Amino acid sequence: MKLLAPACALLLWLLVATGCQAKGPVKEDFESGRKDAYAPAVLTLASGKWSLNNALLGNSANDKKNGRACVRIKADGFLSMEYDLQGTIQEITCSYATYGSDAPAEWLLQYSTSKGAQWINAGPPVQATPQLTTSSFPINQDGPIRFRIQKLGGGRLNIDDFTTGGGGGPASTTPQAPPAAAPHRDDNTALGIPVTNRNEPALVVITRSQFTLCYNGYKGHPDWVSWHLSPAWKGPAARCNCFTPDNKIPARYLDAKPQYYRGSGFDKGHLCPSEDRDGSDEDNRATFLMSNMAPQAPNLNRDVWEKLESYCRKLMAEGNELYIIAGAYGSGGIGANGRKEALEQGLYVPSNFWKVIVVLPAGDNDRSRVDAATRVIAVDMPNRQDANNYQWPHYRVSVDELEQRTGYDLLNALPENIQAIIEARVDDGDVR
């Protein structure tokens, strides 16, 4: 990646949507539209249609920009072309900075030659600081092609003056990196269904296309939820906030209702996050079933637990696919209104939330690709308001420790010799 000096303005050489080569400069300065909220939307701008997810068009004094407006992206949002360019795109140039005095942010430039079905990283993550910077990213890729800015983490991100260089010339002879494997929606329990020797007669395993879970009908919340995460699961669906009882819970079991949480001082804490399943409205609605919820201390749910969820999506955006199992165990947590053992109707409050994350480069035959060097992240977090006194890496443990504490045998579809190595290790990987 070649970094250029800051610039006051940039020209955007785009190709018209008909597929003909551009005849002259066209500038996408994000000043021809209006979007004041972060909710997903598709805007028609000067150059064509763009998707903005967890993003808006900012024009405040704190937005770092050239001219009147720019894009502002939060969380793990993105800015994506909804049209293709033709010809050979030699490079992309854009201006970027963090919003106001926000912490540094990381983002990726990605491209797609499959109309957005598959995204390929154009280079390593880029760090934005409060200083407005202009960078040029070599592409040398033939069209049809479209581009996306994928935010990874940190503070809010400003993007302005998105520019393509080239188009219309001969195809580049520069060797290209092999394309990344196409993302798949793989088996949510490919690495094994957790099993226990505990005498738990009220456990029921429920399988959906979005995830598999084990609901504890005595406690009224899931013991565990297992799911696969790749770009194939991601999309433009909005968060539905449609908390709904699960009609698959047998009538003889405690069936959690949203109202049981009212005034309790605990959040309805997702095990499988909403943002891991926004590929369609149906996928997102599944994450709001009460069988996917457990009473979670607000400072845990909204801070340290959410940051780990965002880190998982960052790993995905960097070219990985993840197998994740999350669960809850124990009794008694400390929420906004103090300690409670149970909510209405006897809905148990767990003492701990845990998660196991297996990280693989995107590819096929996933189970066979897990080896002794595969990164496995396991955490065990207390269900307390002061859990956010530490960041999530503080809570890393080994899978072996989690198995002892929860009574579950995890990752049991893997060869025993591989399990023995990766389950004994406490992750110490870079979490930036």
Can you give keywords for this protein?
mainly beta; Jelly Rolls; 11-stranded antiparallel sheet; 7-stranded antiparallel sheet; 5 helices; 35% strand
Write a structural description.
The strands form 5 sheets. Strands 1, 2, 3, 4, 5, 6, 7, 8, 9, 10 and 11 form an 11-stranded antiparallel beta sheet that branches. With 432 residues, this protein is mostly beta strands. The chain folds into 2 domains: 2-166, Jelly Rolls (Sandwich); 195-422, Extracellular Endonuclease, Chain A (3-Layer(aba) Sandwich), CATH 3.40.570.10. β2 and β3 form a beta hairpin. It is globular, with a radius of gyration of 23 Å. It has 5 helices and 24 strands. The protein starts with a strand and ends in a 10-residue tail after the last helix. The model is unreliable at 1-25 and 168-178 (pLDDT under 50). The chain is 10% helix and 35% strand.
SSE map:
Blueprint: E1 2-4, E2 41-45, E3 48-58, E4 70-81, E5 88-98, E6 105-112, E7 120-121, E8 126-128, E9 133-142, E10 146-154, E11 157-166, E12 195-196, E13 203-207, E14 212-216, E15 221-229, E16 267-270, H1 281-286, E17 293-296, H2 298-317, E18 320-329, E19 333-335, E20 338-340, E21 352-361, H3 366-369, E22 375-382, E23 396-397, H4 399-406, E24 408-409, H5 416-422
Antiparallel strand pairs: 1-9, 2-3, 3-4, 4-10, 4-11, 5-9, 5-11, 6-7, 6-8, 6-10, 12-24, 13-14, 14-15, 15-18, 16-17, 18-21, 19-20, 21-22, 22-23
